[in-house]
Amino acid sequence: MGFTKRMWIGVGIAVIFIAVLTLYYFFDPAQSSYFPQCPSKMITGYDCPGCGSQRAVHAALQGDWRMAFWFNPLLFVLVPFAILVGVFEYVPQLRFHPFRQKINHPLLIMGVFVVIVLFTIWRNI
Q1: How far is CA 11 from CA 5, 100, 110, in A?
Q2: Over 54-118, what HEC string results?
Q3: Rg over CA atoms, the chain
């Protein structure tokens, strides 16, 4: 059985993901110039919903979950949700699973959007 194009894409994504996690493990985004700064923060001075995510990933990989949550608590909700959505989109056997319809329901997607907006307002008050 040979590798299909879809399998190669999956392997490529996994390799990139591992490389990025390795970079975040060994280098602290708060002290390293390897990582980009938030353009939204630089232009407006306000935190975007993703501000603190790089530091949160670094802290989580170092085992400091409390500090990771402090940097960006929204990641603890959105990352598992995004993984779940990705699995149901990427795995062909799950594309027509009834749960996929629930996680792609317009009300749930709107709810996630509202949470992101409220989180952004809250963190900038």
Answers
A1: 10, 24, 32
A2: HHHHHHHHCCCHHHHHHHCCCHHHHHHHHHHHHHHHHCHHHCCCHHHHHHCCHHHHHHHHHHHHH
A3: 17
* Length of the chain in terms of residues written: 125
Average pLDDT rounded to a whole number, residues 14-26: 94
Q: What is the overall mean pLDDT for the chain? A: 90
Q: Rounded to 5 degrees, what angle do the CA atoms 6, 10, 16 make?
A: 145
Give me the number of domains the chain comprises: 1
Q: How far apart are CA 110 and CA 65, in angstroms?
A: 28
H/E stretch holding 104? none
What is the extent of the structural domain holding 18?
5-123
Would the pTM count as exceeding 0.85? no
Q: How far is CA 44 from the centre of its chain?
A: 23
Q: What is the pLDDT of residues 52-96, one digit of tens each?
A: 999 999 999 999 999 999 999 999 999 999 999 888 887 878 888
Predicted pLDDT of residue 1? 52
